[in-house]
Amino acid sequence: MNPKLKIDIVSDVSCPWCIIGYQSLSAALKQLAPQLGAEIAWKPFELNSAMPAAGEHLGEHLQKKYGSTAADVEQGRAMLTTRGAALGFQFNFKPDARIYNTFNAHRLLYWARQFNKQTELKLALFALYFSEGGNPSDVEQLLQVVAKVGLPQDEARALLQSEQLVKEVRAEQAKYQSMGISSVPTFIINDQYTITGGQPVESFVQILTELAVQQTA
Fold first, then answer.
1. pLDDT for position 193
2. DSSP-derived secondary structure for the chain
3. The pTM of the whole model exceeds 0.90
4. Total structural domains in the chain?
5. What is the per-residue pLDDT across 85-107, written as a single tens digit (0 to 9) for each?
6. What CATH number does the domain containing 158 carry?
7. pLDDT, average across residues 42-71
8. Which residue range is the domain that position 67 belongs to?
């Protein structure tokens, strides 16, 4: 039987390196298939848990949080756009781009597990924010994404209008923080090994191959 790795991805939908890392992982898994498979689950991490509903201007936020200059921000966006395009993902950074609270998006991702639609929803949320310039804290925009991936919109609306899954998502966030995870993306393989950041495809191929050999040894 060919090995199948368990891969938990700790990430946020407003993290550009998370989609780059996933696209690299996905490309690596395609190269390694069918000899190696993976079972992927998405785990919550908020880059800005205290972000208000209205959000904040992204460029100003980056300058304040990381000390980045306007030139740094533009250089970073250009690099991300190039990396994304090479991996099949389109970044559309606008001058007035904002960053938002993402907790409701994480609640929906937790809920989507029961439908085996987590990855579809996650990718649609990445597209909403980075490609379409949408707001992943806006209930109506979230519900449009839910419908787009074939999830029950009425059920999602009821969830977002309630306190459902608040405790569960907070507990998972605390779990990964207690494990020392402070940056994303973090890929946890078979509950033992971690890979961090937006690694290139070749790195994922090498690491996953080595872990698969260990698993079958």
1. 95
2. ---EEEEEEEE-TT-HHHHHHHHHHHHHHHHHTTT-EEEEEEEE--TTTT--TT-EEHHHHHHHHH---HHHHHHHHHHHHHHHHHTT------TT-EE---HHHHHHHHHHGGGT-HHHHHHHHHIIIIIS---TT-HHHHHHHHHHTT--HHHHHHHHTS-TTHHHHHHHHHHHHHTT--SS-EEEETTTEEEES---HHHHHHHHHHHHHHHH-
3. yes
4. 1
5. 999 999 999 999 999 999 999 99
6. 3.40.30.10
7. 90
8. 4-216
